[in-house]
Amino acid sequence: MTEIAGRPDDRGGAVREPLKFAYWVPNVSGGLVVSNVEQRTDWSYEYNLDLARAAEAAGFEYALTQVRYLASYGAANQHESTSFSLALLAATEKLKVIAAVHPGMWQPGVLAKFLTTADHISGGRAAVNVVSGWLKNEFVQLGEPWLEHGERYRRAEEFIRYMREIWTSDAAEFSGDFYRLHDFNMQPKPLDLPGRRHPEVFMGGNSTDARGMGARVADWYFMNGASFDAAQAQIADVSKQADDNGRTVRFGLNGFVIARDTEAEARAQLADIIENADTPAVEGFADAVKQAGASTSDQKGMWADATLTDLVQYNEGFRTGLVGTPEQIAHRLLEYRRRGVDLMLCGFLHFREEVEYFGREVLPLYRELEAAEGVLAWGGQA
């Protein structure tokens, strides 16, 4: 039996934590699929407030707000991510909310201050996802410089290093190609809590640049939807690079969940989403993201081998295969946990009711499997 992957703790032992669950916040219209299929998901604050409370009650620990500034590819309307995240934090009690941000749209010291305030308001539940950016027109039409792929990741890495410096030093110093900081003392600092000194830093990607950056500076590394073997290979690569840098990184995987009472119902829903795909929007999205991937130095990157069907779900969530009965999905989740996935980032078609169904029907089954796996894999120690 494959043992569930562990992460080293400060004493050199292994921390085998339960799989964590996050959901995509639908603060962008169109839901999580580029399809004309009927959806009962809404991008309004009122809907999302209700959803956040339901997700918290269902057992979700994290929520990720999307960052999109420009109407594009089925997303006609967008709410800004950081303000939306703060509102959800203020309305919940346990949920950690990850605000996606673009370096180039923010000065890192200003964002660090914003996140610190959010951290104090929420009792330590603020987090950030630093996104290098792929949609060129968002930068160009706002009059901001557009950098090529490798440079965007260099800027994003400096952005994270700068924020971490300002969060942890009373005389912060930073000198980079994109950002500079001299003898700066930001007060108050973020809350210093067990397991974290400051808001958790997420980032994602598939490219060589992204993997190296994640290994050097990220707390969490997000991956697009992937098969068991593909996820495991990327985890092994980034983990090795992180170890070489004396660091530990945890891993999140994107997965679009279609849980139904029967497998036939779930498969039919997936087919309906794909058959009703907004083809022009999917093709436009494909052109934009594949152009971004092709600009990498080694022609590797996110969406590099994605088909049009894969791109009906923005971050290739269909590839993770979370489609079927609660039992089938629970077993698949366990296999991803065995391969080293620490967090599953879930998307849904009808968010409100499906988040509740997931919490009621899938999570209890998964927790039972995870507990049994612990007994079997860890020599009788749960």
Written overview of the protein:
This protein is an alpha/beta fold and 382 residues long. It has a single domain (15-377), classed as TIM Barrel (Alpha-Beta Barrel). The protein is built from 11 helices and 14 strands. The chain has helices at 45-58, 81-91, 108-122, 136-141, 149-168, 208-217, 228-244, 263-275, 279-294, 326-338, 351-377, and strands at residues 7-8, 14-15, 20-25, 62-65, 96-101, 126-130, 172-175, 180-184, 200-204, 220-223, 250-256, 258-259, 323-324, 343-347. An 8-stranded parallel beta barrel has the order 3-4-5-6-9-10-11-14, surrounded by 6 helices. Strands 1-2 form a two-stranded antiparallel sheet. Helix 3 (108-122) links the parallel strand 5 and strand 6 (126-130). Helix 5 (149-168) packs parallel to helix 6. The longest helix is centred in the last third of the chain and has 27 residues, at 351-377. It is globular.
Summarize the structure.
The chain has helices at 45-58, 81-91, 108-122, 136-141, 149-168, 208-217, 228-244, 263-275, 279-294, 326-338, 351-377; strands at 7-8, 14-15, 20-25, 62-65, 96-101, 126-130, 172-175, 180-184, 200-204, 220-223, 250-256, 258-259, 323-324, 343-347. It has 382 residues and is of the alpha/beta class. The strands form four sheets. An eight-stranded parallel beta barrel has the order 3-4-5-6-9-10-11-14, surrounded by six helices.
> CATH-wise, what's the superfamily?
Luciferase-like domain
Largest sheet: 8 strands, parallel, barrel
Distance between the termini: 15 Å
Helix content: 40-55%
How many structural domains?
A: 1
Segments where pLDDT lies below 50 for 5+ residues? 1-15, 375-382
SSE ordering: EEEHEHEHEHHEEEHEHEEHHEHEH
**Structural class estimated from helices and strands:** alpha/beta
CATH class: Alpha Beta
- How would you state the average pLDDT, rounded? 90
Q: How many helix segments? A: 11
Gyration radius (Cα, Å) is: 20 Å
Q: Give me the count of strands.
A: 14
Proportion of strand residues: 15-25%
Oligomer: single chain
Shape: globular
Which CATH architecture would you pick?
Alpha-Beta Barrel
Q: And the CATH topology?
A: TIM Barrel
Strand order of the largest sheet: 3-4-5-6-9-10-11-14
